Amino acid sequence: MTKEIYFIRHGQTDYNLNKIVQGSGVDSELNEKGRQQAQQFFDHYKNVGFDQVITSSLQRTHQTVQGFINLGLPYEKTNLIDEINWGIHEGEKGDWQMRQNYLNLINHWSNNRLEHGIEGGETGQQLIDRCSQFLELIKQRKQSKILVCTHGRTLRCLMMLANEEEPKYMETIEHANTGLFLTKWDGKTFNVLKENDTSHFN
């Protein structure tokens, strides 16, 4: 069955604005700009005809698509698409050591050493496993037009899997707040038709 999946990243939070790490351990809310981004996305796509809305378990994703939920569309939350847990860096503002830890981690993942994670957080393999599980669930859904709101690193992982790429591909994926990745499932493969589309801001 052919279906279209509209993947978006949540709107801006104060943590985004202030460059503070927010993974699955930080359940932040949208700030004023984030609410404006959510409204702009809703205004642009409200007539698409979605037949299901799926978000992570974190409130910044449901807040981003609240306009669609208010239309009465079938809606569910799943922690399969929560943001990665960044362990000891959750809720911290970036510094030199944190940057080095992150670059070291990305180097491991880019070389397929996916058992690595930030201390106390998820590994690359754990993230890939749950994102893979989510895509398998999407394939089985009877709905043909689904809106999914998730998070930056998770979105990178989902698109890597959809494109059947290696983990190093994740680092090439840009993702603005409420940036859209339009993906088509043709029954055999995913085809990414739009990447990080922010035309709704215009």
Protein model, in words:
- The chain has about 200 residues and is an alpha/beta fold.
- It has a domain at about 5-85 and about 145-200: Phosphoglycerate mutase-like (Rossmann fold, 3-Layer(aba) Sandwich).
- Helices cover about 35% and strands about 15% of the residues.
- It has 7 helices and 6 strands, in the order βααβααβααβαββ.
- Strands 3-2-4-1-5-6 form a 6-stranded mixed beta sheet.
- Helix 6 (about 125-140) crosses helix 7.
- The longest helix is centred in the middle third of the chain and has 17 residues, at about 125-140.
- It is globular and about 45 Å long.
Provide keyphrases for this structure.
Rossmann fold, six-stranded mixed sheet, 17% strand, alpha/beta, globular, 202 residues
